[in-house]
Amino acid sequence: MDIVISKSALQWFKNEVELKAGDKVKFYPKVYGNSPVQEGFSLGFTVDNEPIDIITKFEADGMWFYIEERDLWFFNGHDLHVGYNEEIDEVEYSYTKHDE
Q1: Are strands 42-47 and 24-30 parallel, antiparallel or unpaired?
Q2: What is the CA radius of gyration of the chain?
Q3: Beta strands in the chain (DSSP E)
Q4: d(Cα 58, Cα 22) in Å, to the nearest integer?
């Protein structure tokens, strides 16, 4: 599984979340909402500079964006793409089936 963060999403994280080099962002499943890969769950993120068991990560400008092994089930064989939606000024997620 891979994580891809677009340049515009990376800039959003720097501006809105005030990320800087050395920070780490964990993506994790939340028990409410819906996503294209899991009904009844949505994806959230938090700044967590103490990862436990990284299964995959994306590095840019000294920052890490990662998923822990215990959360891999959520992605159901998909890669995570994080983009930026200018109309709502938020990051948005899309998923593509992972080639094994």
Answers
A1: antiparallel
A2: 13
A3: 3-5, 24-30, 42-47, 54-60, 63-68, 78-85, 90-97
A4: 13
Query: Which residue stretches of the chain have pLDDT < 70?
Result: 99-100
pLDDT in tens, 69-82: 999 999 989 999 99
* Buried residues in 32-47 as b, exposed as e (16+ CB within 10 A): eeebebbeebebebee
Strand order in the sheet with 54-60: 42-47, 24-30, 63-68, 54-60
- DSSP H helices in the chain: 7-16
Beta bridge mates, 94: 81
**pTM beyond cutoff 0.85:** yes
Closest CA to 84 of 24, 9, 13: 9
